[in-house]
């Protein structure tokens, strides 16, 4: 077997990139890397029983040159007998995407097209042509930007169980030698020489300088660093998942509440990772940087007992009452109200919980913060559950008078993030229970009670739709 093909085959096996009999979509730009990748996979496909297809995106950025690239790829696909999917973007369409650089917009469009093409062809893998030099460039770019281990891992051999990079451990020199040995033509992209792009400056200036003046095996060393960082990053991510589960924070969504003492008991590296993971999950696709995570940690670890931070993606961080709360900002006028069936179950996505209502007979269980019992004959149906409103008052058990709900929230140290969404259960006579916080004295169970209404609050994923079941 050709040594180039042997290297590719071993890489595929070592990283479990493509199983025998799989359908694979190959991304083909027409450049040297993608031509070598397509040719290599075609030659390996017979013994592996792969079904190959190819995809090419014309970004509409380079005029006639882009059209020639597309024509070249069509000819290549015809020669290899591989079905080809092509898409052409309208000139200027990428520039219309606000808040994104041209490179980022082009990348988003390319990956979106590849996913569409893979779905259409039934491919379970998308093969990309990134090689060892590309990996070294990525690591240097991230290093210059101040990345941690997560950035130093560079590009992954397998990402999301879909994208695979069979050439990632192959130097560009071996790719060129294979193409020359086999007499395979390819296209040159003039934008790869454009010094306005950081990656090009690193490829053409910085990496050659480091190799010439400091270490002739710089590229190999950076690729090895990425491989080590990838494995250590995997370990840290597993530790974060386990810590989130121990802290009861594995459920994604807003709001998130952490006890500061629990957070302080963790290693600083784990604390940072946990906060960064939670912020990324709340930021709705917006990039949360190192500085934002550090600011939240400073808030949590500082001497001031209270504080507020506003972060990208509408995320707010609050320290109060020995807790750190993270939530996505909710409009002040946001509210909800749902009818409650008896018996029945109602999901309240705004509050991330569910109420379960049932009828109960004696002997009565002792009420807890999660369960409230009411004398069924004293409850004036129908029931409803809603958000708290300005002016709400409640008669707490044993108080002997009414109290503003906002004062109850303050006395019970209810975080501000929860006050606007706390479930308020009411009947025709008024508030019966602020679920999990305070219940009204009215309709309490006594020795004369014969039938009780039992209401329990349960946590649910916050994106559960409001639903009623009887």
List the main descriptive attributes of the protein structure presented here.
alpha+beta; 3 domains; Uridine Diphospho-n-acetylenolpyruvylglucosamine Reductase, domain 3; 470 residues; single chain; 14 helices; Rossmann fold; 5-stranded antiparallel β-sheet; Phenylalanyl-tRNA Synthetase, Chain B, domain 3; disordered C terminus
Notes on the structure:
With 470 residues, the protein is an alpha+beta fold. The protein folds into 3 domains: 3-228, HUPs (Rossmann fold), CATH 3.40.50; 248-328, Uridine Diphospho-n-acetylenolpyruvylglucosamine Reductase, domain 3 (2-Layer Sandwich); 337-469, Phenylalanyl-tRNA Synthetase, Chain B, domain 3. Helices cover 39% and strands 21% of the residues. The chain has 14 helices and 22 strands. The chain has helices at residues 3-14, 32-48, 64-80, 102-121, 132-144, 149-152, 172-182, 198-213, 218-246, 260-264, 268-282, 290-301, 405-411, 416-419; strands spanning 23-27, 51-58, 84-88, 125-127, 158-159, 163-164, 256-259, 307-311, 315-320, 323-328, 337-340, 344-348, 353-360, 371-375, 383-386, 393-394, 403-404, 424-427, 430-434, 438-439, 452-459, 468-469. It has a 6-stranded mixed beta sheet, with helices on both faces. The chain has a 5-stranded antiparallel beta sheet with strand order 11-15-18-19-20, with no helix packed on it. Helix 3 (64-80) links the parallel strand 2 (51-58) and strand 3 (84-88). Helix 1 crosses helix 2 (32-48). The longest helix has 29 residues, at 218-246. Mean pLDDT is 87; it is low at 461-470.
């Amino acid at each position: 077997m050709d040594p180039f093909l042997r290297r590719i085959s071993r890489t595929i096996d070592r990283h479990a990139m493509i199983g025998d009999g799989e359908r694979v979509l190959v991304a083909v730009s027409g450049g040297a890397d993608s031509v070598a990748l397509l040719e290599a996979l075609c030659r390996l496909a017979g013994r592996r029983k792969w079904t190959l297809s190819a995809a090419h995106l014309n970004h509409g950025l380079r005029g006639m040159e882009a059209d020639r690239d597309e024509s070249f790829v069509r000819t290549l696909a015809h020669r290899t007998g591989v079905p080809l999917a092509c898409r052409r973007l309208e000139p200027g369409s990428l520039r219309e995407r606000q808040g994104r650089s041209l490179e980022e917009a082009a990348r988003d469009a390319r990956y979106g097209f590849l996913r569409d093409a893979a779905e259409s062809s039934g491919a379970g893998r998308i093969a990309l042509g990134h090689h060892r030099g590309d990996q070294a460039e990525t690591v240097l770019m991230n290093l210059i930007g101040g990345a941690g281990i997560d950035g130093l891992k560079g590009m992954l051999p397998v990402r999301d169980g879909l994208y695979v990079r069979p050439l990632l451990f192959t130097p560009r020199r071996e790719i060129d030698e294979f193409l020359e040995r086999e007499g395979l033509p390819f296209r040159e992209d003039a934008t790869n020489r454009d010094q306005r792009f950081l990656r090009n400056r690193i490829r053409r200036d910085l990496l050659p300088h480091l190799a010439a003046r400091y270490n002739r095996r710089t590229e190999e060393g950076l690729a090895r660093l990425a491989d080590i960082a990838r494995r250590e990053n995997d370990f840290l991510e597993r530790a974060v998942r386990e810590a989130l589960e121990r802290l009861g924070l594995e459920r994604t969504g807003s709001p998130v509440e952490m006890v500061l003492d629990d957070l302080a008991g963790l290693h600083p590296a784990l604390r940072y990772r946990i906060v960064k993971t939670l912020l990324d999950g709340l930021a709705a696709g917006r990039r949360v940087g190192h500085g934002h995570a550090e600011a939240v940690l400073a808030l949590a670890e500082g001497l001031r007992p209270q504080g507020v931070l506003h972060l990208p993606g509408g995320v707010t961080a609050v320290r109060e009452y020995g807790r750190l709360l993270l939530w996505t900002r909710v409009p002040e006028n946001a509210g909800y109200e749902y009818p409650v069936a008896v018996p029945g179950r109602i999901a309240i996505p705004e509050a991330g919980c569910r109420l379960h209502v049932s009828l109960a007979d004696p002997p009565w269980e002792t009420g807890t913060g999660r369960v409230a019992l009411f004398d069924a004959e004293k409850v004036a149906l129908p029931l409803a559950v809603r958000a708290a409103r300005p002016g709400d008052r409640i008669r707490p058990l044993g108080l002997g008078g009414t109290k503003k709900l906002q004062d109850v929230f303050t006395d019970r140290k209810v975080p501000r993030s929860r006050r606007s969404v706390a479930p308020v259960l009411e009947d025709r006579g008024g508030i019966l229970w602020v679920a999990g916080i305070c219940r009204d004295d009215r309709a309490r169970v006594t020795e004369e009670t014969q039938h009780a209404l039992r209401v329990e609050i349960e946590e649910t994923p916050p994106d559960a739709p409001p639903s009623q079941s009887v």
